Every structure is written in C-alpha cells, then in structure tokens.
Amino acid sequence: MLVLTRRPDESIIIAGKIKITVVSVGPGRVKLGIEAPSDVRIDREEVHEKIEAQTDVLTAVASSAATRDPHTNTFVASGADTATIVPATGTESAPAPAPAAPPLPLHSISKYRLPRKPR
After folding, report:
1. For residue 31, is it within any domain?
2. What average pLDDT values come out for the chain (119 residues) when binned by 10 residues?
3. At CB < 8 A and 24+ separation, what contacts does 8-13 make?
4. How many domains does the chain divide into?
5. Which pLDDT belongs to residue 107?
6. Whose C-alpha in 15, 23, 29, 112 is 20 to 30 A from the C-alpha of 76?
C-alpha cells in the first residue's frame, strides 16, 4: 500500500486520468474530491462489497443453471425478510407467496416514518 501525505487542496493523479483532491480535513474525517472519466465506476468500499456479493450469488445461480437438468426451473421465493433460491421440478408451479405480515398498530414506531418537519 502506498501512503501519501496531502494537505487540503492538494491532489494526486492515478494512471494519468483520475485526480483525487483533498477537499477538507476535520476531526476524524477527510473529504476527497474525485475526478475520473465517466466510464470509471467509483464506489465506497461497503457499497462495492455488497455489489460483489450480489455478483457472486448471480454467478452461482447462473453456473448451477448451466449444469442442471433442462426440464427443471429455478424460482426465487421471497419470505418476510429474505429471498431464497428454490429449485423446482418442471411439474410444480411457482411457490406460493409468503403470508402478509399483520398490520402494525398506528401508535407503534415504524422504520417507514414520514420525514420530520423542518425547524
């Protein structure tokens, strides 16, 4: 790993086409500005890991689909919080949808709240 020291408004250039500039430095925080061609994808590490995990799942499904019997289907059955991949034979129909969750009382706090009013 290459470690560089930069002050605000100083930059580094990567591969002659990506420019990273230190915008500001605060307590426990550094803001970076990135200039890159539109064909270069830039993600935060946690977002990139989620994308890679989804790509791994899709690759596994595609490879199992290539090696499975052509007379069977693969369905994605969704539950309350998760989706599972369910191999099904050609004689079965799509899996039944999961039962709906009971409605929440109006007084309980839900994660789907309306935004707060501006102060």
Report:
1. yes
2. 92 93 92 92 88 79 60 54 56 60 57 67
3. none
4. 1
5. 54
6. 112
Q: Considering Cα of 41, then 47, then 49, then 54, what sign does the dihedral take?
A: negative
Q: Which of 83, 87, 110 is nearest to 97 (CA)?
A: 83
Which one-letter amino acid corresponds to residue 92?
E
- Contact yes or no for 71/90 (Cβ under 8 A): yes
**What residue type is 69 in one-letter code?**
D
Domain that holds residue 3: 1-61
User: How many whole angstroms separate alpha carbon 78 and alpha carbon 96?
Assistant: 9
Residue 95 covered by a domain: no
Residues in the chain: 119
56 within some domain: yes
- Both structure tokens of 52: 């890679």
Answer yes or no: are the C-beta atoms of 6 and 24 closer than 8 Å.
no
Output the CA torsion 65→66→70→73 (10° steps). Answer: 10
As a whole-number percent, the residues of the chain with pLDDT over 70 amount to: 53
pLDDT at 51: 85
pLDDT in tens, 59-85: 777 666 555 555 555 555 555 555 555
